[in-house]
Protein: Glycosyltransferase
Organism: Flagellimonas ochracea
Amino acid sequence: MSICLNMIVKNEVDVIERCLGSVKDHIDYWVIVDTGSTDGTQQKIASFLKDIPGELFERPWINFGQNRTEALQLAQDKGDYLLIIDADEILEFEQGFDWPSLTADAYDIKTRLGNLDYYRTQLVANGLNWYYEGVVHEYITTDQDHTKQKLIGATNKPFRDGARSSDPNKYRKDALLLENALLTDPTNTRNVFYLAQSYRDAAEYPQALKYYEKRIEMGGWEEEVWYSLYQIAVISEMQNEDWSYVLQAYLRAFEYRPKRAEPLYRIVLHYRINRQYVLGNLFATNAVNMPIPDDILFVETSIYRYALLMEYAICSYWVGNHEAAIDANNTILYRRNVPANVVQQVIANRKFSLNRIYHKNEAAIPKKNKIIVFVPFYNPGHFLDNCISSLLAQDYDDFEMIFIDDASTDNSHTKVPVSDSRVTLVRNKERMGGGYNIHTCLSQYCKDDDIYAQVDGDDWLACTDALSHINQQYNQYDCEVLYGQFRFANGEYGWSQPFSGKQAFSKLRSSWVCPAIRTFRAFLYHEISRQDPDYSCMKDKDGNWFKEAMDVALIYPIFELAGFDKVRYNDRVLYVYNNENPINIFRINRSQELTNHQEISKKKKFLQYELL
């Protein structure tokens, strides 16, 4: 299967290499038609693609439809499929992307323009008689029966900085072309829709509203009709129309296509800005769980991924529903690919609600707590250097380090700074596993009032004041457990989350808690023996210490013994979890981790020690 790149260009010397560079490794041939460049675009193309066979044609400009169609015709028999892209765009391929077995006649590729996602046909089988329809906002079609699918693994990204996009009169020129086209064919719904779009983008709103209404009257493709309804509401709000009119316009759009949350989001946003939080919360509650629709036209994906949840969380806070606010913020932070500025804002917003549910516990105890840092390791290699360096760099002085070498074979024990008076090294003669080693540290080296903190040997602390911060948090909140957020070794934000309230806390065994760094007063571990003398909570059904899923085997009883009011969450990243270690236990024995977790979750819950 071969792929032929197919383009038309004009005066794109500043952007063409960026475009070609994004697809160069994924094409076998190229046919590019220049329609009158005077800036050297032709030479740039020939030079950049000199290692790939292809052809550069020069043709006079007529219009988009005719010139693109001619480019398709010139590429006949030059590849099994034609890949079509504009010069001011790039294709972003997922890591490791390779062309799948292509069986459809046409493939739509997702375009991501800011917060908008939409699909456009950019890959077509070369055996059909394709042509472009339209003088502007043209689209590819064929009179032959054909199949179409969405292409997974590639996203089109427009920059809008090419020669045409740089023209300040672009949208007015487009509108004139479309007006003239409608004189010939007044029933063309697509031209009416994009005429409205062009007037909107040219800020000629009365004309835009006129043609959006006309497009609605014409009926047809529901997505265009819905978007016209939606834009009428958006423009009306921009022009400060009476809110009752705007509200009805948004509801009209929502009623027409209830799978689209954008109108509800705009309503919620209005009420939040105007501090009408009860009404904002009412509309947000009905929209917050709506999934991203499978529509292909202008989906504002940011609304579904985080924006609506943010508004819901803010309104929930102001109406006093702090559990809902925390849950919503947790959901955002658990999702990947949320912009960094949004992440920071959500963390700050969540803290307001956390302070409301915990504020009664705050204290100010000027105390320097003894911290016992437990470092278990097995063949950590050079990662242990990072761990040790991060510990020795701490600006807190009242702490000890207990290193337990679980029968490593890489001589990593020689890295442990045993000459440091704060360091104790224990070497197991055989592999004992996580449960046994944790029990050894807590039962033999920790006094009741000590703070236990675990840093695995292939992980490390994220900052030099991590232990100082832990001490400060215990003093400020008079807590007995402190856990918090981490980051992965590649810099990605972690998955640790606070409990939204006592109800969520009571269900902690139904979820995988990811606390890092995990710290607690050592007496809590000693309290386990009062309800479970054999520490069976940390052992499998055969009585052996758990080796996998030890984090939850330890944390579940510790959290339950402390109780919700004595467990605190720390937003600041203090810990780096090294998921890049090739012998990371979750990587090499994930199935056993999950099996153990299921067994641990079913074990008997512990009573809060203060209630005994």
Notes: The longest strand covers residues 148-158. DSSP finds 21 helices and 19 strands in the chain.
